[in-house]
From TrEMBL:
Keywords: Transcription, Transcription regulation, Two-component regulatory system. Pfam families: BTAD. Gene3D superfamilies: Tetratricopeptide repeat domain. Residues 2-60 form the Bacterial transcriptional activator domain. The keyword Glycosyltransferase does not apply. This is Bacterial transcriptional activator domain-containing protein. SUPFAM superfamilies: TPR-like. The keyword Cell division does not apply. It comes from Streptomyces lannensis.
Length: 66
C-alpha cells in the first residue's frame, strides 16, 4: 500500500479520506486523519497541512460537495 510506504505524504491521506467518505465510511475517513495527525506529530513535530485540515473539517460537517 502506498500509504504504508509513504506515511508522511499528506496528499495520499487526502485521497484515502475522500474515497472512504464517498464510500459512506465517514468514521474511517476521520480515523485516517487521526492516524496521519499522530504520525506527523510524532515524527516531525508538526500538524497536518491546511488542505488536510480543511478536508477533515468538511468531512466532520458533511459538506454536500464532497
Amino acid at each position: 500500500m502506498l500509504i504504508a510506504a509513504n506515511p508522511l505524504r499528506e496528499r495520499l491521506r487526502e485521497l484515502q479520506m475522500l474515497a472512504l467518505y464517498r464510500s459512506g465510511r465517514q468514521a474511517d475517513a476521520l480515523s485516517a486523519y487521526e492516524q496521519v495527525r499522530r504520525h506527523l506529530t510524532r515524527e516531525l513535530g508538526i500538524d497536518p497541512g491546511r488542505e488536510l485540515q480543511q478536508l477533515h473539517r468538511r468531512i466532520l460537517t458533511r459538506v454536500p460537495c464532497l
